[in-house]
Structure to design on (165 residues):
């Protein structure tokens, strides 16, 4: 069963946002405001050190999730394990959100929910969150952002993309 209410949602929103941004920029230019004043800055957390297709992160000191929006990586430490996920929901590529009080991820668009290990709980998605291969280098976690592991394509590789700490 398909949900017709979702058809074309992103295209319409994108066009609206593009047109709205152009209008705001035109008003700002007419008023002599610098374009930089309109920009929203988001500091990456944690700090990633790039090394080719690999991003290096400090080993998380406690359970929880940190989101690196610049590299679209979610790093999670949970109950003695560390995982690295793609920021986008596997259903329609919307940025996932971490709900600290519930200890889970949720897609803001269609409400798909995931456990801290990326396993699918409920919603419109049909698989767990996409993982990146990871390995430990001392107190650093190396995340291979060049290789995306989908649970539905290779369950064994997806399941192996975890570090025990």
């Amino acid at each position: 069963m398909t949900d017709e209410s979702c058809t074309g949602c992103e295209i319409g929103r994108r066009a609206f946002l593009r047109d709205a941004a152009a209008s705001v920029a035109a008003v700002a230019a007419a008023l002599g405001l610098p374009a930089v004043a309109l920009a929203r800055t988001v500091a990456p957390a944690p700090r990633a050190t790039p090394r080719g297709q690999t991003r290096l992160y400090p080993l998380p000191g406690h359970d929880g999730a940190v989101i690196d929006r610049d590299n679209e990586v979610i790093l999670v430490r949970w109950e003695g394990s560390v995982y690295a996920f793609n920021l986008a929901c596997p259903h329609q590529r919307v940025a996932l959100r971490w709900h600290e009080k519930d200890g889970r991820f949720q897609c803001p668009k269609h409400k798909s929910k995931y456990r801290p290990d990326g396993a699918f709980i409920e919603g419109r998605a049909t698989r767990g969150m996409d993982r990146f291969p990871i390995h430990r280098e001392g107190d650093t976690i190396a995340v291979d952002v060049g290789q995306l592991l989908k649970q539905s394509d290779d369950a064994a590789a997806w399941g192996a993309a975890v570090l025990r700490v």
